[in-house]
Amino acid sequence: MIFETITTTLMGSLALKAYFSKNAAGNDSKKLNKIFTLSGLNVKDGNQTLTTQLVKKKNYDWGTEYRYRIPLGRSFEDYAAKQKTIEAGINTRTVKLQLKDFRELKIDKNIIANIRELYTKKLTDKKEIELSYDGMLIIRVYNESLPKEVELEEGKGWKVPFGITREKNKMIYHDFEKIPHLVLGGATRYGKSNLINCIIASLIRQQPNNVKFHLIDLKGGVELCDYQNVKQTVSIAYEPEEALEVLKNAYEIMRSKQEVLRKAGKKKVQDAGINERHFVIIDEVGELNPDEAVDKKDIKDSDGNYIKKSEKTIKLECQKYMSQIARLGAGLGFRQILATQYGTGDVIPRQCKQNSDAKLCFRVQSGTASRVVLDGEGAEQLPEIKGRAIYQMADKRVIVQTPLITEGIIKETTELYIIDKGGASIGSTHTKARKNIAVIEKTGLS
Ligand SMILES: Nc1ncnc2c1ncn2[C@@H]1O[C@H](COP(=O)(O)OP(=O)(O)OP(=O)(O)O)[C@@H](O)[C@H]1O
User: Fold this and answer.
1) What atom of ligand 1 comes closest to residue 341's alpha carbon?
2) pTM (2 d.p.)
3) ipTM for the whole complex
4) Which domains does the chain show, CATH number per domain?
5) For residue 218, which of 190, 191, 246 has the smallest C-alpha distance?
6) How far apart are CA 156 and CA 151, in angstroms?
7) Spacing, Cα 406 to ligand 1 middle (Å)
8) Which of the listed residues 210, 383, 412, 419 has the most CB atoms within 10 Å of its CB?
């Protein structure tokens, strides 16, 4: 009897709260107005205050979109810089319990503990927001957070899964045929290497006979060594000296492909019916920054030939090849993926950045670091969630939760294609494979 009375009272008060919450859901506009005022986003002009004006509000099944006219004297960047303040303001609330929460509530002798648990969960649940600009300031307030973990799904052709977006939790795919080069950034331990593994494993599964890899793993060989002996890997490097060999080899293959196309009177590999695609992937491109080189002194003989190249020269030459591949490679079937955790301007060669129409950035420490990868702020505002990133193409930006690959998938994928590379040492792995490529190039055009 006592139990029934307690539960009836509790359920009644919770239902009432849920009713108010339901009516308040999707209506954060008052809160937003208040936040704009308190955080100094409105502008004082003499006696007048120019406010951020709500023009349109629309409810969707994922949440609510607000469109604002920005007052004179403010820019989108001012609002983007206050994203955390806006999100915190939206989340200062009374707990919103909805009817569906009660459906999940277990009604047993632990009812009070269950309600307390539900209440605590709702209290810590956070609504996420996204800011964008298309002439109007757009603020999207999402009812549900993105999942924190997403499984790797199968892609198709040259389309690789890049993550779940908020809209209907739909997986989006990066099409390397449409956007050949990619820059990846993000602070340490947020998911760059994991995404590179997703890309490599997906491409091996989807295009086992057409994909070729030129891998440069400057993180001590821990990330990409799983692919060293698969037939798709043309060459692999773990040190800057080896990286130069790998890049030079990739560049030479690219030039020979250019020659083949020229003779065939074709402009692009697609026109020539060549299915092979080469992926040059560098995990921690920052290690190839010549400005950071300690050893800057070349040793040359009396004829000016190198006896020993300095670290600086090696890195400069690496960057030269990277820039050439980025500039000329797209039509020749070359794709370049450069990953870095460093947030300084010169870490990615300018030509590589300019030729990469896609950028994906995990959380970084500052707006400056975000600009290095995305040419704009935003990645510093991402929540501290591994795998959460901004995926940016020429015309749009979306937040994604990138897929998490397992050791099992990597093993299952690679073990099908392990070949005997004749005990070739790491730095010379490419020498043997290069011969294979010459053959593939000929058959590719026939
Ligand atoms: N998409 C993801 N979803 C969930 N967890 C992830 C995801 N990506 C990475 N992680 C987790 O974060 C850890 C670090 O990821 P990863 O090694 O890819 O980071 P990184 O950015 O390459 O770091 P570093 O630059 O220091 O090498 C992984 O071991 C994994 O546990």
Assistant:
1) 25
2) 0.78
3) 0.98
4) 2-142 (no CATH), 159-445 (3.40.50.300)
5) 246
6) 16
7) 11
8) 210
